[in-house]
Design brief:
359 residues, alpha/beta, 6-stranded mixed β-sheet
Length: 359
């Protein structure tokens, strides 16, 4: 299993701020910086990425003009390949992605990028929250009905994505009777499918949940939250999020509806996938070989964001949760740690992903 990075705690404390050193003499003055986002316009990655880019621009020495471009496709892989093969390492192109790190872990042949080769700038952590329609299976009266109703449809995006792997692993561990439906192009499409009753169950990041699921389904009573995937520490305890108080973690939910604690290879695999994805749901990086002067300015700008009151206020208002930014050095260590994942779990996940592939 990917080892948790020692001391990785989502706070706004200075302990997580990357010590970028003295920035260059305005590398970006009079220049234009392009920010690439690897999901489509209007989705949670795009909404969060544009907000981050907006405030990052204010903090970059030299005040460059910043433009945002979307390169969606294949669960974030198209944009990742672009950053590895096309983007120039001149300091004028960076990524704010939901990096498909699980695709790298599983050796997805479509992914030609090695995330450990990029120049990492920062990361942003966020958990995922799962929800169920109240009319699923003839009617849901309480969270425990998730394991009682028959044949509900669970919506996914790509069989090798962290979203889909977590969704299936968790439902399997619970012993739920469900049909897996994949192929939705992004979390916004997933939420729309549940809203339209094409499917009845899925999960979404905090931006997706707060921005789309909560106002259109939770508040009107169309659906209810089930649990969120909390990262699990080496001692077996959950990393809990105060802004999600009232929603149980998956382990808490399991104990309530099944009794005891989850175990076995599927539980170990779920912990790996979830910890990899939750500690750094979003990641920002530049192409390999980007000038040191540009990297210094970019990392210094990212390091200012947790203490930027304007940014924190706007982010918190938008997502009803404070930003959970990790430093460049922590983001890079986290990415590098993926390669140390237990090979038994990697092989299990490869086979498990194949079982969910569209026929």
């Amino acid at each position: 299993m990917v080892r948790l990075i020692k001391g990785l705690v989502f706070t706004l404390s200075a302990a997580l701020i990357f010590a970028a050193g003295t920035a260059s003499a305005q590398f970006y003055k009079g220049k234009r910086l392009t920010v690439i986002i690897n999901y489509g316009a209007g989705g949670p990655t795009d909404v969060e990425g544009r907000l981050l880019a907006k405030h990052l621009a204010r903090n970059i020495p030299g005040n460059p003009t910043v433009i945002v471009k979307n390169r969606p496709g294949a669960g974030g892989i198209v944009g990742s390949n672009f950053m590895a093969e096309v983007a120039k390492p001149d300091g004028l192109t960076i990524a704010i992605f939901t990096p498909p790190t699980i695709s790298q872990l599983l050796g997805d042949p479509g992914l030609r990028a090695d995330f450990s080769s990029f120049e990492w700038l920062a990361g942003v952590g966020q958990p995922q929250i799962c929800y169920l329609r109240n009319d699923a299976g003839g009617g849901v009266k309480g969270p425990g009905d998730l394991v009682k109703i028959k044949g509900f449809k669970a919506a996914g995006m790509r069989n090798t994505s962290s979203h889909d792997l977590r969704l299936r692993l968790a439902l399997d561990l619970l012993g739920a009777d469900y049909k897996y439906v994949t192929g939705y192009r992004g979390l916004s499409k997933v939420a729309a499918g549940v809203l339209q009753n094409e499917t009845q169950f899925s999960c979404g990041s905090v931006p997706n949940y707060r921005g789309r699921v909560e106002p259109t389904m939770i508040s009107p009573g169309v659906a209810r939250s089930m649990y969120y995937y909390a990262p699990v520490l080496a001692d077996g305890s959950d990393v809990k999020y105060p802004d999600l108080a009232g929603i149980p973690t998956f382990r808490e939910f399991y104990a309530k509806v099944r009794g005891g604690a989850p175990s076995g290879i599927k539980w170990e695999a779920l912990k790996v996938v979830n910890n990899v994805s939750t500690y750094m749901l979003r990641g920002s990086f530049a192409p390999k070989g980007t000038p040191a002067a540009a990297l210094a300015d970019l990392r210094a700008a990212w390091a200012k964001l947790p203490n930027d009151k304007t940014f924190v206020a706007e982010y918190t208002k938008a997502f009803k949760a404070p930003p959970k930014i990790v430093a460049a050095s922590v983001a890079k260590a986290h990415i590098d740690s993926i390669k140390t994942t237990d090979l038994q779990i990697v092989e299990f996940l490869k086979d498990f992903a194949k079982g969910g592939k569209k026929k």
